[in-house]
Design brief:
The structure is a homodimer. By secondary structure, chain A is mainly α. Helix content of chain A is 77%, strand content 0%. In chain A, 48% of the residues are buried.
Chain lengths: 190, 190
């Protein structure tokens, strides 16, 4: 099996999950899009689609957290970082014809009542993002309990704005929510 | 065909969409759960699943807007109404083992990049909710443009909190987002 096949399968699957969801993405579709032999799925993911799904969810979670950290590292303060995160998400949506939003959101809703290992994977990812946001806001001087609450509101507003933006094919909700969250973070600073 | 079959099919479909999504809900599953003959689907929905899906999305949108209006009618002011809406949603989630959240959210994400008539139906529903919220906040004295922005933040926070709550099987995000939104509405009142 060529080196890189596993990564290619995971990259392809992550992209298909965003567009078609977990149920709507088939293994045949994945190997075709990844230009990989069908057997390579079971070679790399012996338990099949659920194992592939779980690894993709967890890896997408890490990559999106890295993006979050990179934007906060590159911004002069947490207020502009918050604004930049929402504006960057809006720009990505426009560039991808409103397909690439949160990498795990569609799957999270699909599996919440139907697949316990995958639900747990999405919950772990959201927890890791909440921890990352709480740390950033705490470092900026906001008390930790308040930093956690603000991060939960930030993440809720972001995930919900993604739904509205993908449905409407506009970026209004991300822009409005981003402005609100940046103002909210500014008001919470000491 | 017995009177009421169409309603029963639509009620059942709405519930299955919340648990399994659009792609994960099959027509055979719908007629079995609705105790309806298979032919009744095509009798009432000649264009099949897409037509049924669109009618269910639009009717769910009206029912959820009616719930929103009822909660605002029953609350003494828009601040407590906002809080009550989030707390009611949290209670419903707990009572349904974290299955019944927004009636169209999972479907909205699934169809956004794959089915234009259904995407449009979800966009129309979100627009109607934004109009209803904007009207309530305007009536409370908030200037209309600001009322619209607040409603978009409200709806974003609600939809995103549903994702976090269903994934984590806790109601923390709805409670935190509800408190934040009630405070935000209070601060915007004249």
């Amino acid at each position: 099996m060529a080196a890189g096949t596993k990564d290619r399968i995971m990259d392809t699957t992550a992209q298909l999950f965003q567009r078609y969801g977990y149920t709507g993405t088939g293994l045949k579709q994945i190997v075709a899009a990844a230009n990989a032999p069908f057997g390579s799925i079971y070679h790399h993911f012996p338990n099949g689609k659920v194992q592939l799904g779980e690894e993709v969810i967890r890896r997408s979670g890490e990559m999106y957290r890295d993006l979050f950290e990179a934007i906060y590292d590159a911004s002069p303060d947490v207020v502009s970082a918050t604004s930049n995160f929402f504006l960057g998400a809006a720009e990505t949506l426009r560039q991808t014809d409103y397909a690439d939003a949160c990498p795990i959101e569609t799957v999270a809703l699909e599996v919440a009542s139907t697949n316990e290992p995958l639900r747990k994977a999405t919950a772990d990812v959201f927890d890791s993002w909440i921890a990352a946001g709480t740390e950033r806001l705490s470092e900026a001087g906001i008390p930790e309990a308040e930093a956690r609450r603000l991060t939960i509101v930030f993440l809720s507003a972001l995930e919900g704005a993604f739904v509205l933006c993908r449905a409407s094919k506009t970026t209004e909700a991300l822009e409005v929510a981003g402005t609100h969250m940046a103002e909210t973070v500014r008001a919470a600073l000491p």
